[in-house]
Amino acid sequence: MPHTGHPRDISDARLAAELLKAEHPELLYELVELARESFGFFSQCTSHLLTNPWFADALTELAPGDHLLDMGSGLGPVPVWAARRGVNVTCVDSHPVVRAYPIQDDWTEWGYFDYATISNQMRSFNVSVDKYKSKLTYSAISSVCVFSHIARSQRDHIIHQYAHRLRAGGIFCIAVDLLAGTNFIWNRADKKVVAPPEEHGSITDLLSPMMDAGLVIERLEVFRNIKDRPDLFMVAGRKPQ
């Protein structure tokens, strides 16, 4: 599917250049196609070219019938990609802006979207993650750049709470923005400072609650000097069998 004409959609020229240097070009292309089909655009933001294929690659182990919990879903292709593979997907996002079809030119990757309108493999809840209640055991949990915007104590609580909702062998994938040139987690939400950097925490302060909850860190990567974005940290931890 070529460029859709949506103001947020990545240009075909930019996409071609990014595919040439992508670690998983086929996966990135599939995600772009799904985003354009579902929302009318794949974000031009450089970090989305990194997070989407990274998370999809980490979740390729999921089988039909498995359960994925996606925290702070916004409008992104990975939940749709997982559902197309037969995974049962729960999306939780508390954003006050609700996006509903038909697609609009003012849509961005931010907002609450009811993914059940795309697939009966999916369901969505317009609540904050700490208020979402479920008795499900999940095969995987994912969170893209949500934990950057909430207080450290809340972040630690959510990680502990949901790590215990993973099945044995399940995977917990997290991405957070970083203050440029540092290991401190991005500390702003809605243009307001959440807490000073030392209080908000660093990469180490994100890894510690994951490991305290029994997760074994399998993969972590830091991305620096990202065009138009802060630095980025992504990590995957697994619950032992």
Number of helices: 7
CATH superfamily: Vaccinia Virus protein VP39
The count of DSSP E runs of length 2 or more, i.e. the number of strands, is 11
Q: Major sheet: size, sense and barrel closure?
A: 7 strands, mixed
Brief summary of the model shown:
With 241 residues, the protein is α/β, with parallel strands linked by helices.
Task: Describe what this molecule looks like in 3D.
With 241 residues, the protein is of the alpha/beta class. The protein has one domain (12-238): Rossmann fold, CATH 3.40.50.150. It has helices spanning 12-21, 25-39, 46-58, 77-84, 152-163, 197-200, 203-212, and strands spanning 67-71, 88-92, 98-99, 112-113, 122-125, 138-144, 166-178, 188-189, 192-193, 216-223, 231-238. It has a seven-stranded mixed β-sheet, sandwiched between helices. Strands 3-4 form a two-stranded parallel ribbon. Strand 8 (188-189) and strand 9 (192-193) form a beta hairpin. The chain is globular, with a radius of gyration of 17 Å. The N and C termini lie far apart (41 Å).
List the keywords:
alpha/beta; seven-stranded mixed sheet; Rossmann fold
Explain the layout of strands and helices.
Blueprint: H1 12-21, H2 25-39, H3 46-58, E1 67-71, H4 77-84, E2 88-92, E3 98-99, E4 112-113, E5 122-125, E6 138-144, H5 152-163, E7 166-178, E8 188-189, E9 192-193, H6 197-200, H7 203-212, E10 216-223, E11 231-238
Parallel strand pairs: 1-2, 1-6, 2-5, 3-4, 6-7
Antiparallel strand pairs: 7-11, 8-9, 10-11
Helix pairs in contact: 1-2, 2-4, 3-4, 5-7
